[in-house]
Amino acid sequence: MKLSPDEVRAVRVALRKMKRAFGSFHVLAAKIGISANTLRRLVNPNRTPPTGTFAIRLAAVAGVPVEVLLGGKVIVTAPIIGRAA
Question: Which of 3, 62, 78, 85 has its CA 20 to 30 A from that of 53?
């Protein structure tokens, strides 16, 4: 599935936000199931744009519907590592 330029931009913004929330591309890549280098290439506007399939996988990790991610309204919070008793 090919994304529009606005959707590509929204996916790249969400990817940057999620990288900050998860701490690194390595951690995020492990959650998505692809390499960190692939994430770095996808976030770079001078490289290959993200695909619809990638957007679906990213939305699943973010816990939001893909429509929200493509609309550019993703709010990402840091994952909860543990909770005090």
Answer: 78
